[in-house]
Structures
1.
Amino acid sequence: MRDAKASMGFIFATVLIDMISIGLIIPVLPVIAGSFSSTQADHAMAYLLVAGAFGLANFVGSPVLGALSDQYGRRPVLLIGFCGLALSFFVTAAATALWVLVAVRLVSGAMQANISVANAYVADITAPQDRAKRFGQLGAAFGVGFILGPATGGLLGAIDIRLPFVVAGSLALVNLAYGYFVLPESLPLDKRRAFDWRSANPISSLNKLAHLKGVGVLVVVIGLSALAQFILHSSWVLFTTFKFGWGPKENGWSLFAVGLVSVVVQGFLLPKMLQRFSSPRLVVLALVSSTLAYLGWALAPQPWMMFVIIGMNIFGYAASAAIQSIVSNSVDATRQGATMGAVASLNSLMAVLGPLIGPGLLTLVAELPRDDWRLGAPFLLCAGLQAVALVFALRFQRTHPVQPVNAHA
């Protein structure tokens, strides 16, 4: 099977298992971090350290791993990532001190570039005109993972707060075995590129990403949108716990709803959106939708409203596929890994800042009454970031008024 022709089915299965394992821990990781604290403010600070450690290491490691995948292929780099995840999950399950959580997240973050390498894998096996649709299918795998993972993690966490990490680590080992014995390599030898340390460092890779012909302005959109997303991710469980008293089960179901809408949009509605809207227009609509969603989450007085807003933010789940295809089509086949690694490095930089900003803001307002609007400060900031990204997206739209999302950029 290892020599079989690479196809979407192989990478879809890989990403699905990967995202289920990651999704399992989302409702419970803040709780584990908070178990080493005594107040809500200390709880937010502990989670800030844990989440920021992974993002910092991933910011440095992603472009290096992406460039390595351009030389040695996608498969071995994915295997390194599965090892990093398994290590992180099992050590977290056994951790007895906060510093252990921070240390293992640093190690696993440096070893993990699964999302960027999976995107490069898709680019390897897909013609430029079909990449938006394929990135949407990959996004659907993320969504399915977030349907199954967080809901299961919430239920398991209600039994034992460390049980989701044991199950997630086991799934990471399953993916390691699948990758080793089944997953074929997608990058032919004639399209590989020698590793260059100078271009693999995160600052250099971000500079090259910013200067991609015709799409450099999208780097601002990617960065601001990613920062808002990571502030949301790092604040969601803490915010709903502080404001509504949710536990792992309720947070698991809310993330289940996010995954469900993501699958519906990226797996079924995205092709119709691609027929109706150009890629720049789709990005604009997505940013308008997500700006309103962030405002709604920040100010929602009742917990059921969080679910309603998740369901209404349909366009917000479509931006990623459109942007990924534009950026991917701007480089040749030998640089897909490095380019997707640079995008991942940008996202990882935002993953460093997001947990500093989101839980940091919650640290300042954590002791306020539940009905105080200032508890929504992280999401209000997210809405502002999306509004600024919208300005840059409109600028890009003016220079690319009729470009379809599946065209070669």
2.
Amino acid sequence: MPYRLAGLLATCVLAFAAKADSASPPYPDTWRVERVIMLFRHGVRAPLVGEIGAMELARQPWPTWQTPASVLTPHGREGMRLLGIYDRERYSALGLLPNTGCPADGSVSIWTNTEQRTIASGQALAEGLAPNCHLAVGHQPQGSEDPLFHPIEAHAVPFDAKEAVREVIAQTGGPAKLTAPYRDAIRSMELILDCRATGCDIAATPSSLTPSGDNRGMNLKGSIAITSGTAQVFLLQYAEGMPLDQVGWGRATRERIAEISRLHALLFDIHARPDYMARRIAGPMAQHVLAMLARTDGPRLNLMVASDNNIAALTSLLGVHFQIDGYGYDDPPPGGAFGLEVLRDPTTGERYVRSFYQAQTLEQLRQLTPLSRTQPPVIQWLAIDACKMQGSEVCRLSDFEALLHRRTHPEQR
């Protein structure tokens, strides 16, 4: 999808999602789910250091968080545990987990990135998924760079910032063009900040994208840099359950949060979703997914916990888009997960892949609503157009594997 059309097509995506939101799978009842792979974003955390690009524009002091910067909050931990409880119910009904007791050894794999927020989120998922079973939550040493999730930082993939900048600008038109359709959302952020009286005009801020001095990263300036992290912090305030008068000083309504959430996702339209970035950020993950799909043994439930940019890159690599109630287009909710189900037709033995997005609505997360099959999170079934069978929303496993290989190795076409 051309990035300049994303805003225009968001309403179409919402219309599709309204039909697709269901925990009931859209394939024959005789098919069996053999394996599930899910890539979660961590749960609600306190703001990152330096995340609020509009820090100096606000006319009032920013609310204080009780949790240290970047750390999973107790509220966020409980939100992840509730998701684990739901997934236990969902996948026990499909035969991947037992109805009672602990999963068999080796039937569940949980692997997280190395930040505290991802490790703690994985632990909370495990508690909900299998209470008192002490499921192992694997990860590399805390604070290290796991090449599965941080391949650029771990020097696991070739990366040239100059080439990245050239290709990102060629594909997207650059940061100014990306933000042009979202002037109304930027104005909403200015209303939340209450900076209009002092003459703030975020949309008019000069934008640029340049390679870093060491050629290992990209420097982004302008309205996306100002609004992306700021929008996320307002959303986190609401999701955390802060009193409404502390959520954007009482000016960040649910409607405004949903609108400015798209500004957060624009950062991924620079740093994760363009082809050059998606291949590098999600390439090792894609190879890991292919290895799991090829196995006939091993864990039937494979859960990974990382960050929003990992999800943005992998979904871009597959050409799918999503939008959950309360969030902007392509903005990964805290605790949400992109998933793949491997299905088998017992009559023919043919295997298929179906993709989905699972997440609590923003209101479910704020209220810590208990989840169950009668009160589920949102589940959107996502059609991977490049490999789906005619008249169906599923891909043959062989076609899906070929697609992932083509997307990660375009030079071999």
